[in-house]
Amino acid sequence: MSQAKDQWQSRLGVILAVAGSAVGLGNFLRFPGNAAANGGGGFMIPYFCALIFLGIPICWAEWTMGKYGGQFGFNSCPAIFGVIGRRPIFRYLGVLGLIIPIVIYMYYVLIESWCMGYAFSFAAGWIDLGDNPAQYATQSVDYFNSFVGANQDGLMLDGRIHESVVVWLIVFAVNFYLIYRGLSKGIESFCKWAMPMMALFAFIVLGRVLTLGTPDPAQPDLSVLNGLGFMWNPKPVDGEGSWIAALANPTVWRNAAGQIFFSLSVGFGVIVNYASYLKRKDDVVLSGLTASSTNEFFEVCLGGLITIPAAFVFLGAVGASKTGTFSLGFHTLPIVFQYMDGGRFFGCIWFLMLFLAAITSSLSMLQPAIAFLEEALAIGRKASVTLLGLVTGLGSLFVIYFSKDLKVLLFLDDTVGTIMIVVLALVQVILFSWVFGVDRGIRFAHQGAEMHLPRFFKFVIKYVSPVYLLVMIGWSCVTDSGKYYKLIREDNQILLATGLVLVVTVFLLILINLGGRRWKAETRDPRTDKSFGGLGAEPARKEARR
Amino acid sequence: MRTGGWIFMLLSISFVLCLTAFTFYRVLRRPASTEHMHAPLDIDTRDQDT
């Protein structure tokens, strides 16, 4: 009886560990803002299409390719792509699997520090929205803008001590201390019990949001029911045309795919890296699906029901749809807590939980680059952590400096955090389906798998996902490339942000070139190396010939 | 909230809940899931001593 209970508890522990890694800021902060800005309910059509035809299948492909590359002793995206693709071009395309987590980390750690800062502010009672409910929204937006320095560039680095910069320094240092000392697993264990608590608090906040009714009787239209309608009623983007016409907007499809990839950490280079440390008999199919489903639960069932209805009630339709993706939760939730008994306590716990959800994601973003620096430069973990700390620290300071309207942060999120992720997903799905071979890939995925891939997904991975991504990227290029070109030409901050991404990319390409020669020499022969999953001579030879 | 909104909301939430329940059920009923399933940060990167 006791043994059965222990087994059940350890299986529950697996679910909580997977959930702890999967849930992040994308669920509670990025998704609501994205849905509100891209057609509300109509957004859910491209969103679920992206989940079924892109997110889940490419997640499985990534886990499988990572596990395969790990059998050769490689852990970084460029080296693994090189082993699978067997051409230098794939090694260089692997730079996407490094630049994405590195650049996203630069702004993600900043948002993570805002969560910690808000938790401190709630605990200390610094977030005071006054006594006039009509002014709550203005006060909340003003507090956020002054906290992050959104009113002017350089405000946060003007030589004075700012709370948000101090918290950023602490959070940045904590991230690197944990990764430097190899303590990420401790955080994971902590999150095993923190995640159920987060779900509990999310349900409490959800309950309060859904019972807000019409907080301002002078504006009866701004009710929770209309807020839910704002989220779920299919509607046109920017109020023009019908909601079906909005489905012809490639930006909506691209943003939906980007959201799925961002929150599932697919197309990041993170899964490929972590999967490379797995043994041949470890599961990748059920693990990937469990992480995806838990993530969707937090995103759709909690994130989507809390932030957007509350944003609509307090900020109105314009405020809810025009606020930047990450800002919406910071603008809105303090007002919800103002309406709650014990709001200060709940506000503190809520943002602390968001911080915990964020730190598991930010720690996992660092590992791909650490593994790459170790492999490319043949240096130890501590040296590579130090080098990465320098690069991401400078990048993060760049984002902090150019804080006006969070323009640089939102630009990086739109380009690296959305477009580049979609491009890496395309590279990965082509590599898996057409270079590695979809049959061979699925056979390898099934080794040690706790469930088999539904047959339907073979067709999806081979044909539907690549065509979906190719059409979407091509369509977006036609409609959006002019917009980005104009933006880069006319805005100096955006030009500098583009320069930052290019400089880091060139630096990584040089390292890939250096590392490539070593990897070629060090590629282990699967016919003789026992660590190649103990295949035995003949199957290994077949594997190597393929 | 229009009828279309209710339909989108209920279908979306139902789909996600069914998917989540299916995966949890699979994990809980598989005896070897604790040995073979790993969360990213749970995985030993084996480079701590280098």
Number of strands of chain A: 0
Biggest chain pair contact, residues each? A-B, 63 and 39 residues
Average predicted local confidence, pLDDT of chain B: 82
Radius of gyration of chain A: 23 Å
CATH architecture of chain A: Up-down Bundle
Provide the succession of SSEs of chain B.
HH
CATH fold group of chain A? Amino acid/polyamine transporter I
Strand content of chain A: under 5%
Classify the beta-strand content of chain B into a percent band.
under 5%
Largest sheet of chain B: none
Count of distinct strands of chain B? 0
The amount of helix of chain B comes to 55-70%
* Class by alpha and beta content of chain B: mainly alpha
Description of the molecule:
The complex is a heterodimer of chains A (546) and B (50). By secondary structure, chain A is mainly alpha-helical. Chain A has a single domain, classed as Amino acid/polyamine transporter I, CATH 1.20.1740. Chain A is built from 21 helices and no strands. Chain A has helices at 2-22, 25-37, 44-70, 77-85, 88-93, 96-124, 136-148, 163-180, 184-210, 224-232, 243-246, 250-264, 270-275, 285-322, 327-338, 343-377, 381-401, 407-446, 456-490, 492-522, 537-545. The longest helix of chain A has 40 residues, at 407-446. Chain A is globular. With 50 residues, chain B is an all-alpha fold. Chain B is 62% helix and 0% strand. Chain B is built from two helices and no strands. Chain B has helices at 3-29, 33-36. Chain B starts with a helix and ends in a 14-residue tail after the last helix. At the A-B interface, α1, α9, α10, α13 and α14 of A face α1 and α2 of B.
Protein topology:
The complex is a heterodimer of chains A (about 550) and B (about 50).
Chain A: H1 2-22, H2 25-37, H3 44-70, H4 77-85, H5 88-93, H6 96-124, H7 136-148, H8 163-180, H9 184-210, H10 224-232, H11 243-246, H12 250-264, H13 270-275, H14 285-322, H15 327-338, H16 343-377, H17 381-401, H18 407-446, H19 456-490, H20 492-522, H21 537-545
Helix pairs in contact in A: 1-9, 1-14, 2-12, 2-14, 2-15, 3-4, 3-12, 3-14, 3-18, 3-19, 6-8, 6-16, 6-17, 6-18, 6-20, 7-15, 8-16, 8-17, 9-14, 9-16, 10-14, 12-18, 12-19, 14-15, 15-16, 16-17, 16-20, 18-19, 18-20, 19-20
Chain B: H1 3-29, H2 33-36
